[in-house]
Amino acid sequence: QVQLVESGGGLVQAGGSLRLSCAASGIIFGIRTMAWYRQAPGKQRELVAGLSGGGSANYADSVKGRFTISRDNAKNTVYLQMNTLNAEDTAVYYCYSVIKDGSSRYRDFWGQGTQVTVSS
């Protein structure tokens, strides 16, 4: 069974930085998209940043220039470097990936979420 385990969330002051990590483990034959979503209280889950298997990245307009997504294919890990954080970035951040698992099919997987709180 594939699992995505996030780490790196926490409390930070406005203007500060955090780095989130998400490691995929289990029976993995291939990984396509790796991405980060977030969900703030009372709001829908939204895409923050995504990275295709070919290395193309896309970002939500609200984080462009502040956040950077990257991946280490050897470690099956995706990172989200978040700089110049503000209160609007407060949310639970979820890792998402499309992974070819033991079923030999590509399937969607989600992490359990990690809380990011930015104090103003």
Low-pLDDT parts are none
Give the radius of gyration: 14 Å
Number of strands: 11
What is the average of the pLDDT values? 96
Number of helices: 0
The amount of beta strand, in percent, is over 45%
Helicity, as a percent range: under 10%
Distance between the termini: 40 Å
Helices and strands, in order, run as: EEEEEEEEEEE
Question: How does the major sheet shape up?
Answer: 7 strands, mixed
Q: Which class of secondary structure composition applies to the elements?
A: mainly beta
Give the overall shape, derived from the CA principal axes: elongated
Tell me about this structure.
The protein is mostly beta strands. Helices cover 0% and strands 57% of the residues. It is built from no helices and eleven strands. The protein has strands at residues 3-7, 10-13, 18-25, 30-39, 46-51, 57-59, 67-72, 77-82, 91-100, 106-110, 114-119. Strands 2, 4, 5, 6, 9, 10 and 11 form a seven-stranded mixed sheet that branches. It has a four-stranded antiparallel sheet with strand order 1-3-8-7, with no helix packed on it. The chain is elongated and about 45 Å long. The model has no long low-confidence stretch (mean pLDDT 96).
